[in-house]
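@channel sequence for tomorrow's demo:
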Amino acid sequence: MAKVLVLFAHPRPDRSEVNFPLFETAKGVQGVTAVDLYADYPDFNINVDLEQARLVEHDVVIFQHPLYWYSAPSIMKEWQDLVLEHGFAYGLHGHALDGKSFLNAISTGAKPNAYSKDGMNHSDLRSLLAPFERTADLCGMRYLAPFVMFGAGRAMEENRLDVHRNAYDDLLKALVADRFDLKKAAKANYLTDVLDDFILKGEAV
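structure tokens (generated this afternoon):
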């Protein structure tokens, strides 16, 4: 069994039609620790010792957030700046995170075709998330493809939210049960609502 840490960042959860429901899903999965960073640190005074202890205690770390300006809400950058210290997360003696897995669970305003060389953003989504991937690499972690809700603004209108919540539930439970194909997910561009190709059947690995 693996322990999964979900770090949720949304500055206006009361207006969140996608991310807050997904966070509620995460809170209901046994083996998942779900943390609302804005709720815990409204003044951005992050408890570094606590956050580092959480990282050490968990095997999988998920940054759950909307995609803001090709990145994450500001508290997530503050968290990285303070928590991922030299000597803890990287550097000659910084090996606390070696071997753990990391991914972004995100929502985007644009549809999938916007994330291509010929699309509006002139780049695929995983390339845009390269700073997160490079951070994971530096910290000795395995970066997995992002779990994405594209076109989030129309998800409820198009009746896609429940499907996505169920897929998130499946993803989290598979990670906890060590039944998620980490090698395959590390090579993918992004994870979709259809996770059958990534969830291992039978015995845990």
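heads up for whoever presents: Strands lie at 4-8, 32-36, 60-66, 101-107, 142-143, 147-149.
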